[in-house]
Amino acid sequence: MREEDLVQSVDRALAILEVLKTAGEGLGVTEIGARVGLHKSTVYRLLATLARRGYVEQDPVTERYSLGLKLVELGSAVLERLELRDLARPYLKELMEASQEVVHLVVLQDGEVVYIDKVECPGPVKMYSQLGRRVPAHATAVGKVLLAFLPPESREAIIARGLPALTPNTITDPERLRAELERIRERGYAFDCEENELGIRCVAGPIFNHAGQVVAAFSISGLAMRLTLGRMEELAKLVRRVSLQISARLGYQGSAEALATVSR
Question: Is 0.85 topped by the overall pTM?
Fold first, then answer.
């Protein structure tokens, strides 16, 4: 990144956080200013902003600053995502082998799905999907699964941003999408019938954590000529089982009874 593209205040705030990382007992405003090369009045304003958002804390007795608990929250989110990839991968590989189709793992960020893992299937036909790629949630099976199990206020906030069409099959009507999400909550999986990309169909399932929150989703994706509607219904049973198995590994309490039902 070019120097002129940097936001100076953000750069300075991050420098302060990095200094506090190595200060176990905390640091005063003057000490921080000396270490980052800033006047203490500037440091004070930056610290006040960081403290307001929970990124730093001030000891009321010593008046020293240290890192805040908000950073623990952010770090835990990153670790959870990385651990999730390792935990889910064996199940995703089994899913690929059983279906002979590509399998994706995604998380939701700012109303979009972000691809964080991919298990490619053998064969000459490869699917264009890159790790880190973002796609509007409403246009994918994985995205619809994630939307379906979000808290209502979070789901409605994403819907309110608009539902652009990626193909003629994309659901762009809010009421129709809400009805689709209700069906997904009832059955525990979602279909993408060429809604994100023409010629591609997907079957997706959610992953829940110990608190019953949806934290990720995965899908089987393939060419529409191979993933017929009948085959998608069959794969949905497998997706549902794997969804509950991965969720159980994350401590989801609803998995045991549901798995027994699915296995019948």
Answer: no
